Amino acid sequence: MNVGDDGGSWKDVPIKKGFKNIGGVGDKYNKGNITKVFITNLPPGCNPWDVAEFVKVFGEVSGVYIERKADKEGRKFGFVSFNNVVDVKEMERAINGTKIGGGSKLQVNLARYAKENQGINDGNNGGAVGNGKKIHNPPQNNKGKSHQNHSQVHNTGINSFSNLGKGKLFSDLFKNEAGMPDSNSCLVTEVGPVIEIADEKVAFKDLIGRALVGRCKDLSILRNLNSILADTGIAGVSLSYLGGLSLLLKFEDDDSYVKFMLDHQTWKDWFFSLDPWNCQSLPFERLAWVKIQGVPMHLADNDVLNNIAKHFGKIVRGSQLEAGDCNLSVSWIGLLVGDGNRIHGHVTLRWKNKQFHV
């Protein structure tokens, strides 16, 4: 069985195609001292932005990379880069044993062979990171080939107007005397040529102070927000699609911009987060349909089909297979994914001591 997508597009919703190097102010490369840690036991279907949102309380996150394939023990793993970590061991102890979404306990340790970690003493004190160049090439697998499922993460939080990415519970513990750099910064991993972009190059500067970036709570809100705003009596705003579940809300004047931004009671049911547009880096996200086929008829339950799909992304529209459907051999499921790769894979279903490869 094949799990595929239809080119990453949804009806009535324009979709960005491919992976782009998304830059912003201060984003030529991260200016802070970087510490990279290895993290494993991530829950199935976990995305880079989920990890960034979870670990930001332990320090300022500058980048997240998640490997699509599991390790030899079947565990999902990846790497998280933090800015200006003072004590690596203390941070490891803080993160180890925590859980994302009720999954298995996370295991974290310093990525010993990462170039970012040169000069770090992984004994009792993290030490300082040297001023050497950062890694701009993708992580390598055992055969020396580049992974293609790279992801870019900006630390966007649900608390819309908080100081994003700085951490809340352990910020003092992991902040050096120089303080933390701008949370806009993002570690970019790119396959192919590296294109240098001038630091002062910034797009859509004229929208600063009159545009908001919103991450919708579900697909229905994304597709119907124009009507929702009109029904609520909110005028003077236009929408631009940014990929995934994100929209740019552009206001005609400063007053309507500020009024809407501060009216949390109105927009809290529509958005996970709503942040002022400051030319910041945004995570790459796209919506994709996946076609699940090959599941035996007696196991073609929507819960089973959704369980298969969640291993390839975050479900935004679950399986809706019904007995009255003309075609019960396939089910289409909507996913939110963090890379531009075509989705293709196989799983094994185990039921009553029998196995089914789909």
TrEMBL record:
The keyword RNA-binding applies. This is RNA recognition motif domain, nucleotide-binding alpha-beta plait domain superfamily. It comes from the Eukaryota. The lineage of its organism: Eukaryota, Viridiplantae, Streptophyta, Embryophyta, Tracheophyta. GO terms for molecular function: RNA binding. Residues 35-113 form the RRM domain. It comes from Helianthus annuus. Residues 138-156 have a biased composition (Polar residues). One of its GO terms (biological process) is mRNA processing.
